[in-house]
Amino acid sequence: MNQTRRKRRSDPPLSSRLDSLSPEMPFPSSKSPSLLSPRVRNIFLLLIFSSVVFTLFTYCTFRRDQISSIARSLPLFSTQRRHLLFSIAASRDSWLRRSSYVRLWYSPDSSTRAVVFLDRRGDPDPDPALPPVIVSQDASRFPYTFPGGLRSAIRVARVVKEAVDRGDNKDVRWFVFGDDDTVFFVDNLVTVLSKYDHRKWWYVGSNSEFYDQNVRYSFDMAFGGGGFAISASLGKVLARVLDSCLMRYAHMYGSDSRIFSCLAELGVTLTHEPGFHQIDVRGNLFGLLCAHPLAPLVSLHHLDAVDPFFPKTNRTESVARLIGAASFDSARILQQTVCYDSSNIVTVSVVWGYAIQVYEGNKLLPDLLTLQKTFSTWRRGSGVKSNYMFSTREYPRDPCARPLVFFLDGVGSDGTDGTWSSYRLHSVGNCHRAEAVKRLQRIRVLSHKLKLNVEQMNPPRRQCCDISTPYNTSMVIKIRQCMPDELIAMNT
After folding, report:
1. 380-400, pLDDT tens digit by residue?
2. Contacts of 457 (CB under 8 A, 6+ apart)
3. Least CB-packed of 46, 377, 442, 469 within 10 Å?
4. Which runs of consecutive H residues, i.e. helices, occur in 169-254?
5. Per-residue pLDDT, 76
6. What CA–CA distance (Å, rounded) separates 228 from 279?
7. How far lies 55's CA from each of 44, 61, 186, in Å?
């Protein structure tokens, strides 16, 4: 069988195959689309643009948060009078009687800002020595169901909203509220509020001195007559929601209860400052004023229900004397210090700007810090008990069993940072006194101006004093800072 052998074709040389892949060789098809078509190119540019925008946004957000964080951490420049706006609730009738109290502390020349809210228009001729007067908005649409109460409580509560909503609140850090018989010690209030950041939510005030009042209303409510302060940031929020709260709390008695309830719904609680004084007591305030807390005096209320603070003065004159002393050393007003004369066994309690008590014998400091019950209860009636928010001790009915009392009759400055104050004996009865003090008629107190900052108020420390001996008809006392380990006690 014939077999035909097929010849195998030899492979081309390697060089020949490489030559076939030379750059001159065209692509398989010259009609295929480009790798960067317009559609692909647009998508690619859009992705680049989005990436740039995202990067810039992220960086700016980070920088804004960082700058805000740094700004919050920086210390604020000090709070001043002009940063406070006082809103005074009054009626036309009460304003005619009580405007003299406001005149004592309101000082437009010292940048004090205040507004008075009345129920109806008063004197058409404004007094430049008094704050401007505004007629409150109509509040008749809000319900009030408290038996025997006053609907004016709703109008007074809305003073908070109306004060915040006013157009000229530039630079206001704190909204302060009180009544027309509330006397404020403005510089001390500025000092107290400087402890708090107005950019945060703060509700600052104090409750009643009378235990039963706090039981009836709340231990955590700022009583409105004693005054309270709301930070600007909180005030703006409260103003927006207050009307809705007023609809829910028709059953409550007063305006301060409504404000407290609405703030509670916002999640805000009261920050207690003991310098606010509701003064829910009657009669002689001597015992209360002589044992003031170790804190700046901020306010006094219910002045028409108490006796004049000083002998032979009316109420307005007595408050004017206290405010006059505060103008020389506001932080020191009513601050108590005790010093001892161990050689004559005499104890002296100095309440700067008000009164001095001279005791025969060695009296322990804790006993002298307890309030003498010279006043009576706020609520009248035979079944009313004397339940207070502080410890009390009995005030002797026999004048001869009491210490010698000297009331302020003058105060001045030495031209630098020092002050002097003089106190004159208030004689009551013909009493036998110890030889060391029986001729004593005047006491002069020397001190440096008390300058409190936040560190000194947290926590505060009582100051010490020295009695210059010997003395006969007059005594000189020097107040100073206590030594680090010094005790306020008689050396025995």
Report:
1. 877 778 899 999 999 999 999
2. 191, 192, 195, 295, 296
3. 46
4. 186-193, 211-216, 232-248
5. 53
6. 14
7. 17, 10, 51
